[in-house]
Structures
1.
Amino acid sequence: MHLDFHPGNLSAAGGSITGGVDWDGAARGDHRFDLVTLRFGIHGGGADPAATRHLDAVLDALPEDVLRPAWAHMGLRMVDRAIRHFAPSDMEHWPDRAEQRLD
């Protein structure tokens, strides 16, 4: 697992991902967690809508016992990060994003 899988840590050419950088947080675990991390990373970031829809479809196909805890983890992680590093007005969307797949 990369654990920091977001567009800033990906290299691409010709519309395809060609590699990842910044592997200092890499660990053993379920690689599907990186897809959840990527989805949080493109939230509101101007990603191609088709790519976002495709990623959402991939996430929708994950087993609930994989997706739900990964989503909850990332939601808590981003809310914590927002509290510690962002202005209050910048934090508002993270709890909303976290709740989207937990209901």
2.
Amino acid sequence: MPERKPRKDAARNRAAVLAAADSLFADCRSPEDVTMADVAAAAGVGKGTLFRAFGDRTGLIRALYEARLQPVEEAIGSGPPPLGPATPPEERAHALLDAVLCFKFDNRHLALALEGAGSGSPYQAEHYTRWHALLKGMLEKIPGLAGADFAAHALLAATRADLVEHLAGHDGVPREELRTRLAVFVTHVLRAHTG
């Protein structure tokens, strides 16, 4: 009976797969163009290794997305202001939405692939549920703001990957201009609700 490969090989293979998938999704014309066979070949592993590690294409995309998202999640959970928990709620809501927008802009190939992977509604994705709950909690702490649940959904809709791609890719809006537009929009929404 052959010996099992050491865990070091599995970790190396996982890192190679994630790097290969990231590169393929970044360079593709459409996320649907990237197959598991493409990723396996680019990473230098067998397709079986890919399926054992990630289950399916959606699982691979989700793992890559979550790996890229981890620093943002850590900053939100325990980082310093303006994203960290010690920040006043209105300032933190602005910072959270800005962080989500920047993440989607910088990782739109992954965000679009995940939204289009047939994994159900993007509103049921684990990261969306976390962001919505966090933003809703912030909005509930802003005096005079009513309807925090809907407001959180509406504000997060302004950061959807398909919208970011349309504005950045189709209309050519630069990242910093998108950030400015979002900040102005968030300010208007919050003032309208509290005014």
3.
Amino acid sequence: MGCPNARLEASDNRIKVTIRTAYGFHHANNIIALIMLRCGGLDIHLPQPRT
């Protein structure tokens, strides 16, 4: 039948928080890229410093 309401509300909230975080961006393409990065489901592992 479609997505449950809770799942849609969660993704909508994540997009709103991302837009609020990206308030100072000069170009809309940067905001769109940040939304795609946060909501796209990629699992990015940052390099850890060697100790």
4.
Amino acid sequence: MADVVTLTGSCSFRLMPDDPLAEAASSATLTTLPDGAVVLGYRWTHPADGDQHGSLLVGRAEEGTVEAAWYDTWHQHPGLMTLTGRREGGHLRLEATYEQEWGWQVELDLGEGSTAMTMRNVVPASAASKTTPAGPYDVMLARWS
């Protein structure tokens, strides 16, 4: 039988690395399946576009290499993004490439009674500028308990 936990907290968002983070209330449902897969469904509020939601499915999230599928009504639609990464205990680090050279990173911390998710956009060197350096920057910071 699946273990389902409902969580509340906040989610902060920004589009560009020099933008301030806009924080709003957020909720999530974390489902751990008997085979070790993890499903995170979450709701958040975009500062201009309003209510949004997303889902992250991590298959057989055991120690070592993992695969995931991600959908978000603001960031990633209409299709799914496939990510790969590693799990070490309750910490998952996932990565993907989009638009040939841009990157996306998702870190998920599955704590006892709490969950945290950090999403990062990775700017390629070819798109870097004085105001947007190459490399990762936090786009979303979600904390639920």
